[in-house]
């Protein structure tokens, strides 16, 4: 039986626009939906249109004075504080409304699953994982990931696994649930010595009752598809199986791509497609088939994000797009009118994807894996030195 799946989308998501030459350009969302439509991925699918999340829902993870600052910021952009008005998080007109709509999208996706209308749901506009309780951070005003997880905790779920595959550490979500054993947060990211925000070390494993429920796997610059998947399989499935989540929430940033201008990992669109298939399988085998997929970072606006996230949407819908599928001529013409970059012609980067199962080796990725396993595996009754665990 094909799982029921929902897509959350509205063109109003494009209003989350930090302006000017800011790298988080909403054109990436528009191009993704145009590509998914052009390839027939969304044929017969009626996207769910969200409403703005009310203040009380946003305040699950953000303090009231911060919401007040966000609302007033457009009228006093140089006086607000709270991480607003910076180069990373410039103030823009309608900032609260646009940010609340992204939260509303992730809440709607979560509600579809919790209330039994869907087994899977995807919101590519979501994944704003850096926002903290009292300040904006890393292009993120409100943390829709944490808001949705908090809502799920109050609506029938008490074991939620959050997996973050963005190139940057999922610090805001980790912070929101750092002492909560009901939420297992796992972040695979570029090593904090080499990339903002400088957090996400293996020793950040939670506190109090939440000790062992924050997992960080920092990867060295240059890590490519096979090594990334090797690290993923060495850490994630064992922990997810031990935790037995009722739902999988994933932040699917694609700034891990080798062409991304803001980071230094070496993945391909083919690697991203493989990751989504692994996440789908993990949800099916370990989380009762329930999967909430969110977007995230990704700054290859024309060549990378639309293809990678079209693969994400198609994977959620069980309408997998073959790698060598040509891009629709109409989409290419539209995108070409917006950029001077040479555009790809297929849904692949031409990479063959495979990996060798982890053993305690001597390269940098294996060392990173072992550090993470030794930090958290014993807290879950797993042997960090045994590749079978």
TrEMBL record:
InterPro entries: AcuC, HDACs, His_deacetylse_dom, His_deacetylse_dom_sf, Ureohydrolase_dom_sf
Keyword flag Membrane: no
Functional pathway: Ketone degradation; acetoin degradation
The UniProt record lists the keyword Coiled coil: no
Annotated keywords: Acetoin catabolism
Pfam families referenced in this protein's UniProt entry, alphabetically: Hist_deacetyl (PF00850)
Histone deacetylase domain segment(s): 22-315
Family to which the UniProt record says this protein belongs: Belongs to the histone deacetylase family.
Protein name: Acetoin utilization protein AcuC
């Amino acid at each position: 039986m094909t799982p029921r799946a929902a897509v959350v989308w509205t063109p109003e998501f494009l209003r989350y626009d930090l302006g000017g030459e800011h790298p988080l350009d909403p054109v990436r969302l528009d191009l993704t939906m145009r590509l998914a439509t052009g390839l027939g991925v969304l044929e017969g699918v009626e996207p769910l249109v969200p409403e703005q999340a009310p203040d009380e829902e946003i305040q699950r993870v953000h303090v009231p004075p911060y919401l007040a600052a966000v609302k007033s910021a457009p009228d006093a952009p140089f006086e607000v504080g709270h991480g607003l008005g910076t180069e990373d998080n410039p103030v823009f007109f309608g900032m609260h409304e646009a940010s609340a709509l992204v939260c509303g999208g992730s809440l709607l996706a979560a509600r579809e699953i919790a209330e039994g209308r869907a087994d899977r749901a995807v919101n590519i506009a979501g994944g704003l994982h850096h926002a903290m309780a009292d300040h904006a951070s890393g292009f993120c005003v409100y943390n829709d990931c944490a808001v949705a997880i908090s809502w799920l905790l109050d609506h029938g779920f008490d074991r939620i696994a959050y997996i973050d595959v963005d190139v940057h550490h999922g610090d805001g979500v980790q912070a929101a649930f750092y002492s909560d054993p009901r939420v297992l947060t796992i972040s695979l990211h570029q090593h904090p010595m080499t990339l903002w925000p400088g957090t996400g070390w293996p020793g950040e494993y939670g506190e109090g009752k939440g000790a062992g429920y924050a997992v960080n796997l920092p990867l060295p610059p240059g890590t490519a598809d096979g090594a990334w998947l090797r690290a993923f399989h060495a850490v994630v499935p064992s922990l997810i199986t031990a935790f037995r989540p009722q739902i999988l929430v994933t932040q699917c940033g694609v700034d891990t791509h080798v062409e991304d201008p803001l980071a230094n990992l070496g993945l391909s669109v083919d690697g991203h497609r493989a990751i989504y298939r692994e996440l789908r399988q993990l949800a099916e085998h370990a989380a009762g088939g329930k999967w909430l997929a969110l977007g995230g970072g990704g700054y290859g606006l024309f060549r990378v994000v639309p293809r990678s996230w079209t693969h994400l949407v198609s994977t959620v819908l069980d309408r997998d797009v073959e790698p060598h599928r040509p891009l629709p001529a109409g989409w290419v013409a539209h995108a070409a009118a917006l950029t001077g970059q040479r555009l790809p012609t297929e849904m692949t980067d031409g990479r063959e994807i495979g990996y060798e199962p982890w053993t305690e080796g001597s390269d940098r990725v294996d060392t990173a894996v072992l550090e993470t396993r030794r930090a958290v595996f014993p807290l879950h009754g797993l042997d960090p030195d045994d590749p079978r665990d």
